[in-house]
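Question:
Write out your own:
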Amino acid sequence: MLTYRIISPEESTIIFSDLQRLAEIHSNLIKNLAMLQSNDGLFECPVNAMYDHAKSLYYYQVYCSNLIKSRKILRKKMQQKQFVAFLQSERIRKYDEKLDLASHLDQPRRHLMKYPLILSEICRRAVDQQEIDQLNKLNEHITTII
């Protein structure tokens, strides 16, 4: 979009923020959780991986706090024919997806909101009381961040 001068550098910073970093953070979490799975399909308690991941939730906070400004700019841009045409052509050409840009930009917020649910589910299935206590403590920590 910057290349085609459809949005300004300032608008790009507001709309896309640290989206690439958030994608990397999320991918790293998935990779770290996958490493906890043994050959028999069972998982080790992911509390350490989740604690490490919780350190990066600051980036989600910054991104989410910027979503209102981002949506405001997108609403304004959606009134520009060139912007709408570009989005439509890119969606068809590259992704063949039905989701619009605003939905994609909301994905990190949805990830953030799911962490307490995931931790609650893991806690429900855990058998070791020490792990359960650690998971509950982590869940409280993440909930305060959200």
Notes: The chain has one domain: 9-145. The radius of gyration is 19 Å. The chain has nine helices and no strands. Residues 9-145 form a domain with the Dbl Homology Domain; Chain A fold (CATH 1.20.900.10).
